[in-house]
Amino acid sequence: MTVPLLTTERLLLKPLQAEDAAQIQTLYPRWEIVRYMVATVPWPYPENGAEYYVNNVALPDVAKGIAWFWTIRRHETPDELMGLICLYDEDDNNRGFWLAPEWQSQGYMREASIAATDYWFNTLNKPLLRAPKAAINARSQRISVSSGMRLVRTEKKAYVSGELESELWEITRDEWNALQRS
Fold it and tell me: How far apart are CA 182 and CA 172, in angstroms?
């Protein structure tokens, strides 16, 4: 299944392409973004980190049909990448995202998250979405809460910034669709 273009009121979620790595490389390697990423993310971020990730992890997983990746862009500036959102058909890790700090606190990630979550449930027909996150990541928690998700588990996990309390949030397709109708 190819990854489709998704649109929201203000955003274009364009399927990730190899050429997006250059913009990702300029935006992503910032402490504000990577500190709550899983410890497998290299830090300091290498000069070819985005190119390696896009071409050797993300796009191959898309080709295998186990992942869906989108770049996040505004309608007004469709060539300018703001962040990334992905879905993974993996136990306890179905949605992840990051947004450049200059675009945060404007509702963009919530908007992108709604579009991706709806795709997960109503196009891919998945019954459950689970999203892990560092417990200290309040912005990400707010997106989960506002999306009707519930906290189901806490544990310690290794992040770029060290070992932290980690939370697992979830919502079912029925809960999601009921929330969207209300």
Answer: 16
Q: Summarize pLDDT for 37-66 with one digit per residue, the tens.
A: 999 999 999 999 999 999 999 999 999 999
Considering the entire predicted model, what is its pTM?
A: 0.97
| Cα-Cα-Cα-Cα dihedral sign, residues 76, 79, 80, 81 | positive
pLDDT at 28: 98
- Is residue 1's pLDDT more than 80? no
106-109 contacts: CB < 8 A, separation 24 or more? Answer: 108/10, 108/11, 108/72, 108/74, 108/82, 108/83, 109/72, 109/83, 109/85, 109/139, 109/143
- In this prediction, residue 113 carries a pLDDT of 98
**For the chain, what is the mean pLDDT?**
97
CB-CB contact of 80 with 107 (8 Å): no
Cis geometry, peptide bond prior to residue 101 (ω within 30 degrees of 0): no
Burial 141-156 (b: 16+ CB within 10 A, else e): bebbeebbbeeeeeee
Give one DSSP letter per residue of 165-179, joined into a string: EEEEEEEEHHHHHHH
Antiparallel, parallel or unpaired: β 77-88 and 128-134: unpaired
Euclidean distance between CA atoms 39 and 9, whole angstroms = 34
